[in-house]
TrEMBL record:
This is Enoyl-CoA delta isomerase 1, mitochondrial. Key enzyme of fatty acid beta-oxidation. Able to isomerize both 3-cis (3Z) and 3-trans (3E) double bonds into the 2-trans (2E) form in a range of enoyl-CoA species, with a preference for (3Z)-enoyl-CoAs over (3E)-enoyl-CoAs. The catalytic efficiency of this enzyme is not affected by the fatty acyl chain length. Pfam families: ECH_1. Gene3D superfamilies: 2-enoyl-CoA Hydratase, Chain A, domain 1, 6.10.250.170. It comes from Cyclotella cryptica. The keyword Lipid metabolism applies. Keywords: Acetylation, Fatty acid metabolism, Isomerase, Lipid metabolism, Mitochondrion, Transit peptide. Its main location: mitochondrion. It comes from the Eukaryota. Homotrimer.
Length: 341
């Protein structure tokens, strides 16, 4: 049986939580803890639930770019754990409060001249985010309104379904008119002079297939939306022409979204993500989770078995002089680009 296998693999909130006993439990402490953790604009993530629909939202909220720091990684895991404890919730939308950046990947400042106590903790927290998303009993829908490079792309790939904003001149992302914004997605690590770790590279292989992944990893390709769709890196691309939501969807979204991002109820990506999340939430949880185990348990088992070695390799790799030099150059260029705007 697959379920016991995964329960021994994934600690805390994972596919193992799909047992009928778990679903039957009515844990009121969950509601109390959730209500204190949501809707503070200072939180690194905002989360909220719509129990009628069986859908939750988890929105990354670390300006300016949702780059993944130790603290953001931990906040994602904690929030997912809280949502997981609610038996009425079957789907989660993973989103961003920033309408043009889903996540800029690892916070590169964590990698430059790193503290040797913090660096392994940081890497462990990223591994945990992957394990918790990829091994979750919940169906997770990535609402990718903005850029998703490197570890940002990993977050999306660890979800069950990916919806990306198609961009375009004069389109609306969060309900307001804005100038053209075309997001990109991919594992661009080689552009920074580093390589994606094996488990992340293999995730790309499982998502888009061996040869396309081999090429994309080598070149560090960032795909615009339609190319990402053709490669199978995302499942859907939303443009104004391609999708018109119902009033019911918008109403349900308004009930779901926490205050600071309620205006995202007008975002087409969010609307489509909500519809998809509802679709998953209607499937029998046991059957849905069992099918997820079929495709994910082996790779999760391998990743968890090599976790310590992966951390050791990462830490020694990052501390190499040439890697540090490349990273510093990359960050300087990033800052220069940002200042020149
Ligand atoms: C075998 C190998 C074994 C082990 C593996 C070893 C290593 C591999 C490790 C891990 C794999 C994963 C790696 C990563 O995720 S590395 C991060 C990769 N990310 C990027 O390359 C994205 C960089 N950012 C951008 O390209 C743009 O910011 C973006 C397109 C996302 C948005 O552009 P936009 O024009 O909208 O915003 P900006 O003005 O550029 O940025 C705003 C602001 O945010 C700061 N920023 C952006 N990205 C990051 C980041 N990743 N980390 C920290 N800070 C970031 C940027 O500097 C601006 O700040 P400021 O200058 O203060 O205005």
């Amino acid at each position: 049986m697959a379920a016991p296998l995964l329960s021994s693999l994934c600690c805390r909130h994972s596919l193992r939580h799909c047992s009928p006993r778990r679903f039957a439990r009515n844990d009121l402490s969950f509601f109390r803890s959730l209500s204190t953790s949501i809707s503070s604009e200072k939180s690194l993530v905002l989360s909220h639930v719509n129990e009628d629909a069986g859908v939750a939202i988890l929105a990354m909220n670390r300006p300016p770019a949702n780059s993944l720091s130790l603290e953001l990684n931990e906040a994602i895991c904690t929030s997912l754990k809280e949502i997981d404890t609610n038996p009425k919730i079957q789907s989660v939308i993973l989103a961003s409060t920033n309408p043009t950046i889903f996540s800029a990947g690892l916070d590169v400042t964590e990698l430059i001249s790193p503290d040797d106590q913090r660096l392994p903790k940081f890497w462990n927290s990223l591994q945990q985010v992957y394990i918790d998303l990829y091994g979750s009993r919940l169906a997770i829908i990535a609402a990718i309104q903005g850029h998703a490079p490197a570890a940002g792309c990993m977050l999306a790939m660890a979800c069950d379904y990916r919806i990306m904003y198609g961009g375009g001149e004069g389109s609306t992302v969060d309900g307001r008119k804005r100038k053209s914004h075309i997001p990109t997605i991919g594992l661009n690590e080689t552009q920074l002079g580093i390589a994606a770790p094996p488990w992340m590279g293999q995730l790309l292989v499982r998502t888009i297939g061996f040869r396309p992944a081999e090429r994309a990893l080598a070149l560090g390709t960032l795909f615009p939306p339609m190319e990402a769709l053709i490669e199978g890196l995302v499942d859907d691309v939303i443009t104004e022409e391609s999708f018109s939501p119902s009033a019911d969807t918008i109403h349900a979204l308004e009930k779901l979204l926490p205050d600071p991002i309620r205006n995202q109820a007008l975002s087409l990506v969010m609307q489509k993500a909500f519809q998809e999340a509802e679709l998953y939430a209607k499937i029998s949880p046991q059957a849905r989770v069992a099918s997820k185990l079929v495709t994910r348990s082996e790779s999760l088992k391998d990743m968890i078995a090599s976790r310590e070695a992966d951390t050791e390799y990462f830490c020694s790799f990052i501390c190499q002089d040439t890697v540090q030099k490349n990273l510093k150059k990359y960050v300087e260029a990033l800052k220069k680009k940002s200042k020149s705007k």
